[in-house]
Amino acid sequence: MESQVGDRIHVHSTVVGQGDRQGEITEVRGPEGAPPYMVRFDDGQETLVYPGPNAVIEPQV
């Protein structure tokens, strides 16, 4: 998985009743676009994310 600052990340929930999360990648800490990513989620929370198989990266256009 590769990404760059400004890309969007969609993390699909694996828990029934819990919604998906979406946010913007604000920092790429791995080499050559690799995880981990600092993400600012749409609810304002910022956290370090190591995306799993339930995450999708939407490139910035």
TrEMBL record:
Residues 1-10, 21-30 have a biased composition (Basic and acidic residues). The lineage of its organism: Bacteria, Bacillati, Actinomycetota, Actinomycetes, Kitasatosporales. This is DUF1918 domain-containing protein. It comes from the Bacteria. InterPro entries: DUF1918. Residues 1-57 form the DUF1918 domain. It comes from Streptomyces lavenduligriseus. Residues 1-36 are annotated as: Disordered.
